[in-house]
Write a structure and sequence with these properties.
mainly alpha, 2 domains, 3 helices, 79% helix, flat
Length: 98
């Protein structure tokens, strides 16, 4: 089985389990559900940013290599965001002032 098929099977099981639990959570605790849903939107935004700026697809064939490639893409994305923040807000990372 390919990694994609395994991932699809796992996501299907999690999705079916999550939907039932999510509906219950949404009706019983709407504030908690909304706070978790906002986190989901943030995570999806970060994934989209990584896919469009750093990652054009996984080039490696072995699962371990793909995992490493993905982790490197996440590290590159974090460095890119850090540099962008430093320049946007004029932060001097070498300053002793806080």
């Amino acid at each position: 089985m390919t990694i994609r098929n395994n991932a699809l099977q796992i996501l299907t099981v999690l999705y079916n389990h999550k939907i039932k639990g999510e509906d219950r959570l949404r009706s019983d605790h709407p504030e908690r559900w909304l706070s978790e849903y906002r986190l989901r939107a943030s995570v999806e935004c970060v994934f989209s940013m990584i896919k469009t700026t750093v990652l054009n697809g996984l080039a490696c064939k072995k699962p371990t290599s793909q995992k490493h490639e993905l982790l490197i893409a996440v590290i590159c994305h974090n460095i890119r965001v850090l540099i962008e923040t430093v320049f946007r807000f004029g932060i001097n990372p070498f300053s002793d002032e806080q």
